């Protein structure tokens, strides 16, 4: 219905036209006053001002209105005979014609400028979107990241609720709720039909029981990796729907071109492969470690039985060999444990079992666990009375401490001091371990938290996997804490500190402190 | 283990023949008589056929869960049970202790460590049978009959809850007692999850009973599981600890 459309457009222009009329009126009053006072001529040129303003602010219609009103006002107020639209002087007629010509040209130019400005701004927003989108894609590690990025991108450019489904399975398991957007069941069914290739990828508009209108289509008919989108179109008339649908087609054509240009399909399949490789690797490490541990338990146990055997009591050399077997088995066991821990960490398997724990207990049991390794170190404890309890997984914190002790023992001379301290400060609990060992150079400090990184100074002299501190850091992070290591430099010892949150306010009160 | 009584009989349940072999040798060297079982069913049958003094059970058995073996045997026998578990499963340790296991040893373990646990468990069994009322841990003596606690022969004054806590631990002297069990026994079942009660009370109790409360040797923490009243059979483990405590600042 073109009549309603024209009416619509006029209604849209009305505020601009109103403003223009007010502007011309005001200006006429002003100029009329000035001309009366000063006797100036050719006031019509002044009406170029509202023409330009209207053209830049409210568009071509308003500027034409401004030009017409300007001509009329000039004829009425400033040209002989005054207060009549008639003009007698042919020169002034020419003058007015010139004004009209200039006004039209100026308004054309101004409108075009405005449109270009608008377009430039749109393009800038589009570019910024695109830039943000491609940056997100670059940072995406797995398929779901990429899909989330596509979804947000489409939401921004469509200005509608957009839900992207990676495939049939996801439509089935997402259960109709994602990103706080509720997707009706009918739409989900259609999504899985389209994803399964049973329905036309070109798109279907359907009305849910709730009256909402949704458009379901494959993002790209060529690349099924991009998934299927459902766009909430809202409650629109048929014409508006057709218009919207054309727009969706355009936007999607654009988007898929972008996606293809950015190599998203490739990225998606690569991410899928990567996650499968990761899973395989974790599973392999997990099962291999387990398989290695079982014989270790026999080796270690048998060695300890041999050590006590009366038959070997006088055979010092043989006993030393047995001791070697035991110690090496223990070392191997630690390495395997580290591998298992690392697997647990990278497969996101750390689930802290938090409870109220006494930091003293954690420190003491870590020292107890390392008793063998710390036997010829001078361990000092500095624990202030009334340390607050902390709400953590005590076993994880203890294991982190064990890694730190292990390092301290490894990189410090026999007989040196290892100082262990705990203190509560500014809502944090700080557990620190200071050794008098080989310290850290600046280059080493930068990398000690990395996985499999070992300082080149020690790589050949001290054994290790470079996993210890990385594991410790992950365990502490899982408890909401952080770690840091400070050293004055090479040979000057290292202090490794664990910082854990103390939620003082949350420490529950005992119901009866003085037990009845 | 020098005793005048007949040799204690231990039943070793593990599906790994190598583990059974070293356990057999280790136990026999220390004067035990060893029976073996490779499966849970075999273990249960063996335990019903012949009297045993101790059960060592591995958790990963081919035919049934080790926890089921513990539960089944505990349903008709008070024989001490020590479980061989793997690390990183504190929740499982707690579950096993609650099912009736007396203690656990984490794999891989040394024979000395296992023997220490075994002796503690046997001694507890003997004390329960003889009605011996006193428990001695280093300088600390707890007389359960007259409810008296002395440290270096000096009588200690404990609050009723502190005594109750110590009493429960002394009844299981040497074995680990879970947080849940202690909380239930001392504060009642509604407080089984209020671990902070325990932490605060244990601190107070350690101030009274530990010669050096900063590195406790008598009331020992088993992280994530519970507490243990150190009751090592003669060998003074405390002496080998590397910690030289400084006075707290």
The helix/strand order of chain A is HHHHHEHEEHEEEHHHEHEEHEEHHEE
> What order do the strands of the largest sheet of chain B run in, or round the barrel if closed?
2-1-3-4-5
| The CATH homology group name of the largest domain in chain A | Histidine kinase-like ATPase, C-terminal domain
Beta content of chain B: 15-25%
CATH architecture of the largest domain in chain B: 3-Layer(aba) Sandwich
In whole angstroms, the N-to-C terminal distance of chain A is 87 Å
Largest interface: A-B, 57 and 49 residues
The helix-strand sequence of chain B is EHEHEHEHEHEEEEHEHHEEE
Examine the coordinates and then state which fold CATH places here, giving the name of the CATH topology of the largest domain in chain B. Answer: Rossmann fold
Tell me the count of domains of chain A.
Answer: 4
Secondary-structure map:
The complex is a heterodimer of chains A (516) and B (249).
Chain A lengths: L1 H37 L9 H10 L2 H19 L11 H50 L3 H16 L2 E5 L2 H6 L3 E2 L2 E2 L2 H11 L8 E4 L5 E6 L9 E7 L3 H24 L2 H45 L7 H31 L8 E3 L1 H11 L8 E5 L7 E3 L1 H17 L6 E9 L2 E7 L7 H6 L20 H11 L3 E6 L6 E8 L15
Parallel strand pairs in A: 8-10
Antiparallel strand pairs in A: 1-6, 2-3, 4-5, 5-6, 7-9, 10-11, 11-13, 12-13
Helix pairs in contact in A: 1-2, 1-3, 2-3, 2-4, 3-4, 4-5, 5-8, 9-10, 10-14, 11-12, 12-14
Chain B lengths: L8 E5 L3 H13 L3 E5 L2 H10 L4 E5 L7 H9 L6 E5 L4 H10 L3 E4 L4 H20 L3 E4 L2 E4 L4 E4 L2 E2 L4 H12 L4 E3 H9 L7 H15 L9 E4 L3 E4 L13 E3 L4
Parallel strand pairs in B: 1-2, 1-3, 3-4, 4-5
Antiparallel strand pairs in B: 6-7, 7-8, 8-9, 10-12, 11-12
Describe the structure.
The complex is a heterodimer of chains A (516) and B (249). Chain A folds into 4 domains: 2-117, no CATH class; 140-262; 269-346, Helix Hairpins (Orthogonal Bundle), CATH 1.10.287; 355-506, Heat Shock Protein 90 (2-Layer Sandwich). Helices cover 57% and strands 13% of the residues of chain A. Chain A has 14 helices and 13 strands. Chain A has a 5-stranded mixed beta sheet, with helices on one face. In chain A, strand 4 and strand 5 (213-218) form a beta hairpin. Chain A is elongated and about 140 Å long. Chain B is α/β, with parallel strands linked by helices. Helices cover 39% and strands 21% of the residues of chain B. In chain B, helix 2 runs parallel beside helix 3 and helix 6 (160-171) crosses helix 7. Classes of the chains: A alpha+beta (516), B alpha/beta (249). Chains A and B meet through helix 9, helix 10, strand 7, helix 11 and strand 8 of A and helix 1, helix 6, helix 8 and strand 13 of B. Strand 8 of chain A pairs parallel with strand 13 (243-245) of chain B.
């Amino acid at each position: 219905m073109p009549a309603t459309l024209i009416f619509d457009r006029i209604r849209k222009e009305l505020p601009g036209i109103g403003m223009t009329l007010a502007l011309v009126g005001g200006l006429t009053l002003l100029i009329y006053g000035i001309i009366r006072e000063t006797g100036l001529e050719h006031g019509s040129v002044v009406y170029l001002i509202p023409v330009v303003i209207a053209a830049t602010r409210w568009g071509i219609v308003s500027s034409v209105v401004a030009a017409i009103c300007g001509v009329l006002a000039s004829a009425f107020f400033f040209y002989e005979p005054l207060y009549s639209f008639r003009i007698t002087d042919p020169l002034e007629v020419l003058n007015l014609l010139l004004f009209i010509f200039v006004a039209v040209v100026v308004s054309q130019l101004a409108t075009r400028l405005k449109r270009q400005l608008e377009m430039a701004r749109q393009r800038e927003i589009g570019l910024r979107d695109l830039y943000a989108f491609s940056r997100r894609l670059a940072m995406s590690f797995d398929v779901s990241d990429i899909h989330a990025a596509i979804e947000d991108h489409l939401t921004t450019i469509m200005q509608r609720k957009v839900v992207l489904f990676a495939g049939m399975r996801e439509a089935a398991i997402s259960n109709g709720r994602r990103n706080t957007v509720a997707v009706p069941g009918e739409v989900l069914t259609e999504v899985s039909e389209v994803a399964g290739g049973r329905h036309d990828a070109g798109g279907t508009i359907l009305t849910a029981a709730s009256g909402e209108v949704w458009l379901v289509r494959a993002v790209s008919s060529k690349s099924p990796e991009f998934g299927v989108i459902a766009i909430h179109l809202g409650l629109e008339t048929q014409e508006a729907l057709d218009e919207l649908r054309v727009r969706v087609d355009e936007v999607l054509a654009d988007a898929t071109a972008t996606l293809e240009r950015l190599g998203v399909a490739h990225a998606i399949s690569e991410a899928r492969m990567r996650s499968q490789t990761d899973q395989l690797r974790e599973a392999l490490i997990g099962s291999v470690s387990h398989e290695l541990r079982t014989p270790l338990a026999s080796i270690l146990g048998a060695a300890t039985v041999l050590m006590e055997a009366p038959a070997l009591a006088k055979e010092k050399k043989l006993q030393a060999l047995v001791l070697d077997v035991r110690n090496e088995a223990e070392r191997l066991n630690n390495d395997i444990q580290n591998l298992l821990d690392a697997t647990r960490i990278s497969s996101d398997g750390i689930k802290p079992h938090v409870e109220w724990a006494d930091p003293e207990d954690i420190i003491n049991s870590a020292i107890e666990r390392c008793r063998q390794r710390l036997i010829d170190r001078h361990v000092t404890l500095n624990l202030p009375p009334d340390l607050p309890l902390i709400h953590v997984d005590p076993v994880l914190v203890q294991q982190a401490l064990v890694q730190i002790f292990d390092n301290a023992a490894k990189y410090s001379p026999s007989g040196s001091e290892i100082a262990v301290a705990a203190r509560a400060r500014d809502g944090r609990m700080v557990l620190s371990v200071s050794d008098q060992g080989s310290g850290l150079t600046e280059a080493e400090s930068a990398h000690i938290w990395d996985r499999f990184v070992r300082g080149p100074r020690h790589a050949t002299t001290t054994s290790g996997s470079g996993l210890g501190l990385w594991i410790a850091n992950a365990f502490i992070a899982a408890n909401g804490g952080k770690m840091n290591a400070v050293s004055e430099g090479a040979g000057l010892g290292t202090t490794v500190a664990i910082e854990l949150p103390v939620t003082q306010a949350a420490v529950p009160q005992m119901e009866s402190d003085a037990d009845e | 283990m020098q005793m005048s009584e007949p040799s204690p009989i231990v039943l070793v349940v593990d599906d790994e023949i190598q583990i059974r072999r070293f356990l057999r040798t280790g136990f026999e060297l220390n004067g035990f008589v060893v029976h073996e079982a490779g499966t849970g069913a075999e273990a249960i049958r063996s335990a019903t056929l012949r009297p045993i003094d101790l059960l060592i059970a591995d958790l990963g058995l081919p035919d049934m869960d080790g926890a089921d073996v513990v539960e089944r045997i505990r349903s008709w026998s008070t024989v001490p049970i020590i479980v061989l578990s793997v690390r990183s499963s504190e929740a499982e340790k707690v579950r096993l202790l609650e099912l009736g296991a007396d203690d656990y040893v984490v794999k891989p373990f040394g024979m000395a460590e296992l023997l220490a646990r075994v002796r503690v468990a046997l001694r507890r069994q003997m004390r329960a049978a003889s009605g011996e009322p006193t428990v001695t841990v280093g300088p600390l003596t707890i007389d359960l009959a007259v409810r008296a606690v002395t440290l270096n022969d000096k009588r200690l004054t404990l609050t009723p809850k502190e005594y109750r806590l110590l009493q429960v631990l002394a009844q299981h002297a040497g074995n680990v007692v879970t947080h849940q069990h202690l909380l239930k026994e001392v504060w009642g079942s509604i407080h089984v999850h209020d671990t902070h009660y325990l932490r605060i009370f244990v601190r107070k109790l350690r101030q009274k009973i530990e010669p050096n409360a900063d590195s406790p040797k008598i009331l020992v923490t088993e992280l994530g599981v519970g507490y243990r009243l150190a009751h090592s059979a003669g060998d003074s483990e405390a002496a080998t600890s590397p910690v030289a405590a400084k006075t707290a600042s």
